[in-house]
Amino acid sequence: MKQNFRLFFCWAAITVILLSSTLTPAYAFEPKDQNYYERFQGKGISISVYNWGEYICNGGDGLMNVNEEFTKLTDIKVNYTNYATNEELYAKMKSGGSNYDVIFPSDYMIARMMKENMLAPLNHENIPNASYINPLFHDNSYDPGNVYSIPYTWGTVVIIYNKNKIKEPIESWQVLWDERYKNEILMFSNSRDAFGIALKALGYSLNSEDPKELREATDLLKEQKPFVQSYVMDQIFDKMEANEAMIAPYYAGDAISMMESNEDLAVAFPKEGTNLFVDAVCIPANSDNQEAAEMYINFLNEPKVAADNIEYIGYSSPNLAAFDLLDEEIQNNEIIYPSMEILEQSEQFINLSDETNLRMDQLWTEVLASKGSFLSWGFAPVVTILALFATKNWMKYNRRKKRKRMVDE
Prior knowledge:
CATH architecture of the largest domain: 3-Layer(aba) Sandwich
Number of helices: 16
Number of domains: 3
Distance between the termini: 70 Å
Structural class: alpha/beta
Helix content: 40-55%
Number of strands: 9
C-alpha cells in the first residue's frame, strides 16, 4: 500500500509539472509601449517579409520566435519567405512578380535599389525604437541618415584558418597568395568579395572604379588561382569544419559558427583593412502596408527582440540596448565586436557604376577562365571529366550537380 501511494504521488507530481509547462507561456515578452502595437488589431492585416535563410530567431534554445510574437502582439499575420543572395532578391523584386512589405538587403544593394527608386522612404515617427541604433550606423555611405533603411546586423570579413596547420601569425591578405598553402586555400566565389580582397591586398579601396587598379586586382587573382583549392560560399562550412582546407576568407559571424564546430580554427584581421558589411531592413516602394511594415521594423528593434535575434543569428547588433542585454562573453568577443582600430580601417561596400559592375563581371570571368590547379576547378567540373568515361546515369547526375552549383552561386 505504501509503495502504491509513492507511485501515485510520483505520477501526480509529473502530471502537475506537465500541466504547468503546458499552461505557462513558452515565452513572455512585454514591449516598451503596448498601445503602439494595438493600431491594427482586428483589421485582418498581413505583411509579406522576405529575408535571408536562418536570419531571424525561430524560437529555438529558449529564445523568442520573433514572427509569432509579433503576430501575437499586433494581430498582424506575417507571410515569411527566404532568399539566398542579394541578386536573387533584386531579380525577384525587379520582375514585379511578387510584392513584399519588408526586405533585408545588404549595403551595396540598398544603394542600387535607392538609385532605381525601388525603396520607400521610412517614416521614422512610426519607428521610435530606431533611436536605439548606434550613432556609428547613422551616416552609412549607402544610405546617409538611414532614410530608406534601418540597420539590422553588421559584421566584417575575416581570415579563418587552422591554427594547428598554420603556426605563424597571420597579418595580411597576402597569406591567401602563399605558395606554401597551395591547394589548401578557399576563396569567395562571388566577384565583389574576391575583388574587394585583391584590391585591399594591393593597398586600394575595395570600392575602386579605376580601370588600372581593377586590372591589377584581376592579375593578382589570376596569380592566386593555382593555389586555390575551391571557390566557395556556403561550402566553406563543411570544408573548414572537416579540416579539408587550411585557410579562407569569410564573414565573422559564420567564422564563429565554424569555430564552435572545430576548435582548431581561429580568426585573423588583415592589417590592410577589411569589409564592414551591414544588412538592413527596408520597405519596397510598392508595399501596400507601409505602416504595418514600419511597426514590424520597430518590433525588430525592441531591445529584447533584437537581443534574442542577434544571439540566434551570431552576427553583430547595431542596437545599443540589445547589446546591453547580451552575455558579457558575447559583448567581449573581439571577432563579433572588433576594436575601433579595426573598424576604422574597414570600408563598407557602395553601389558601383553600371560600367564598373559590367567590367568587374568580365574580369571575374577572365579570372575563372585562366589556368589554375586541377583542384581549383572545384568538385563538380572534375566529376564532369570523369563522367565522360562513366555511365549515362553518372552523366545525368553530374548535370544535376552542375545546375545546383549554378543556382547556389
